[in-house]
Design a protein that fits this description.
By secondary structure, this protein is α+β, with helices and mostly antiparallel strands. It has 26 helices and 17 strands. Strand 13, helix 7 and strand 14 form a beta-alpha-beta unit. It is globular.
Length: 607
């Protein structure tokens, strides 16, 4: 979307400046070569308000993307230069680990040693800014955009297992991407490149272990109070970084907690709610309006329609098949916000609240690793394992083994804790963070739930306290009682009420019996007015068929016969699954087709 791109050595089949042009997505973007030497070239592509800064001293040069929220501006420059020196040093890992775990921010730091040409990368402990790299022993390339590696690296094709995992879960696992040879930089990682030897060293500075819970001996009320203190501080530190703070407010618990955090701290803000007959429940909008009124915050509602061809195309070109296309309707919401305020605003969301405060452990006992693999697939699939195997030509056993191989890399030995790790490091880092990064195409996007201090404390609270929203209910009531007095959008009853506790208990019970849950859930949603139009538009299926028939490259990656069979039975699949497939076929089509052909084809379908 935006950010830093680089390569070493600086020679190539075309100029580095020219290679950045494919990453200039709008007329507000600027492409700049900010460092150029015989050993490496580094550039940025961003709009002027995007947070990128260049620093240097006599020893090293630094490009820093992102924001650090708990440091004052005067001391931050000196601190980043010190951090860069440790990134480039051979023995700075202990310092860096400690620094990462006490620094609240979302960032990527790139440093170059002026004498040796040594290149170093460092990201935050959760990899909040997705970054990719390629290395073949001769050339090293990295970028915040996968598209750069596809265009510039000697990549021969797609990674079959990465594609299969993406169809199965909506995202590939670990450092895999959809492209063979392109790797994802894992969280809390230092990566260095020695230009003389061409050696690349990747060091995992920190990986969270979710097996032991340091605060299990503390009461739920004390843990809730500690979390409120950290959450309010995270909201306060994120306030005022841009020209205006706009909170994305729905009726859910996560965004209402963010609004409450800003209000209790007396921070100026505006609440913005997206409304759509097709994608947003009316009750969600109604709860958001009541929240804003109760907390005396300016509230604005923005109507959006279904996704159009140009928005689908933009998601494909900027996120490269790594997020589904169904949410592309949100781009109209972003355009309205940018027009209402300006591109310098900070967009504050409740992202991450669904990861840090609820109980993420499995709903049933997990016997061993094999049982965990099956549970992960059952609970997280977009397309069924059998469908994915048929479409990709890989065996179901091979796909299962790829999941097991990933689990063996986790630090946890308890299967329940390993499942939490999967949800945070795979679904969170590799999928949800990609969605947040889409927001930064328009303006800076952040959330207090991933403040490192809040995250570490919350993940050390025991699952027994988080079960059935108990810790969340205590946290929200302690933070702002009036926010907890309004209904939970999924249950239709006030969060702080005993009825909520009872409904949450039933919900937890039903989750242990999936067949009964699927029978009861539509009835509950209908009673509470939570249903939205989930029908699949026929034009969508027609567009995918056109891609499959006209793009020969799709047949090189996926079975066109199985794709047609899947589309013939589209009524049996939910809309999200079809759009997940649509993202992948569109990405393959885009890589092998001219932009003009693709845009005219999608515009003809979506108008």
């Amino acid at each position: 979307m935006v950010g830093i791109t680089g390569r070493t050595p600086s020679c190539g089949h075309r100029s580095f400046a020219g290679s950045l042009e494919s990453l200039v997505h709008t007329d507000r973007y600027e492409a700049d070569v900010v460092f150029d030497s015989p050993s490496s070239s580094i550039g940025t592509t961003a709009y002027p308000e995007y947070p990128i800064r260049i620093l240097e001293d006599g020893d090293c040069w630094v490009c820093f993307e992102g924001r650090i929220y708990d440091r004052d501006a005067d001391s931050l420059e000196r601190e980043l230069l010190e951090v860069a020196a440790h990134v480039l040093a051979a023995d700075g890992d202990e310092f860096l680990t400690e620094w990462l775990l006490e620094t609240d921010g979302e960032f990527l730091l790139v440093a170059v040693d002026k004498d040796s040409g040594r290149l170093g990368l460092l990201n935050d402990p959760l990899a909040r800014l997705p970054t990719y790299y390629f290395h073949d022993g001769a050339t090293f390339l990295f970028s915040r955009e996968l598209r750069y590696l596809i265009n510039e690296a000697p990549i021969e094709g797609f990674d079959p297992m990465g594609v299969a995992q993406c169809l199965l879960f909506g995202y590939s696992l670990g450092d895999r991407t959809l492209v063979d040879g392109a790797n994802r930089l894992r969280p809390g990682t230092k990566l260095t490149v020695d230009p003389n030897r061409g050696a690349v060293t990747e060091t995992a500075l920190h990986r969270f272990d979710f097996e032991d819970h340091s605060y299990a001996d503390r009461s739920r009320s004390r843990n809730a109070a500690e979390l409120v203190d950290r959450f309010e501080r995270a909201c306060r530190q994120r306030s005022g970084c841009g020209s205006h703070d706009v909170i994305s407010l729905s009726g859910g618990l996560d965004s209402r907690a963010v609004l409450a955090g800003f209000v209790t701290e007396g921070l100026p803000t505006t609440a913005a709610t997206m409304s759509s007959d097709e994608f947003v429940s009316p009750s969600d909008v109604n709860i958001a309006r009541k929240l804003a009124t109760k907390l005396d915050v300016e509230w604005r509602r923005y109507e959006v329609g279904p996704p159009n061809g140009s928005d689908l195309n933009r998601i494909i070109k900027t996120k490269n098949g790594q997020i589904g296309l169904l949410t592309s309707f949100i781009l109209e919401f972003f355009r309205q916000l940018r027009e209402e305020y300006d591109v310098g605003l900070t967009y504050v969301t409740g992202d991450g609240g669904d990861k840090v405060l609820p109980d993420l452990t499995p709903a049933r006992p997990i016997a061993d690793e094999s049982d965990l693999v099956e549970y992960i697939i059952e609970e997280n699939f977009f397309l069924s394992l059998e469908q994915v195997a048929r479409i990709t030509g890989l065996s179901a056993g091979a796909i299962r083994r790829s999941v097991r191989d990933r689990l063996e890399m986790y630090p946890e030995t308890d299967p329940a804790a390993a499942y939490v790790h999967f949800l945070v490091y795979e679904r969170g880092v590799n999928f949800l963070f990609e969605g947040e990064d889409r927001n930064r195409f328009f303006f800076w996007s952040t959330t207090p739930f991933y403040s490192i201090d809040f995250f570490r404390y919350a993940m050390n609270c025991p699952p027994s306290q988080k079960a059935q929203y108990n810790l969340y209910r205590s946290f929200l009531t302690e933070l702002e009682p009036s926010a907890a007095a309004l209904p939970h959008p999924d249950y239709g009853v006030p969060v702080a009420s005993t009825r909520h506790q009872a409904v949450a208990f039933v919900d937890d019970l039903l989750s242990r019996y999936p067949q009964l849950f699927e029978t009861v859930r539509p009835i509950v949603k209908s009673i509470n007015g939570l249903e939205t139009d989930s029908r699949l538009r026929p034009d969508t299926v027609d567009c995918i068929r056109t891609q499959v028939d006209q793009c020969e490259a799709i047949d090189d990656v996926l079975s066109t016969d199985e794709l047609h069979a899947f589309l013939d039975a589209n009524a049996d699949h939910d809309r999200v699954s079809v759009y997940r497939l649509f993202a992948l076929t569109s990405f393959i089509d885009d890589i092998h087709s001219s932009q003009s052909v693709l845009e005219s084809r999608r515009d003809a379908v979506f108008g």
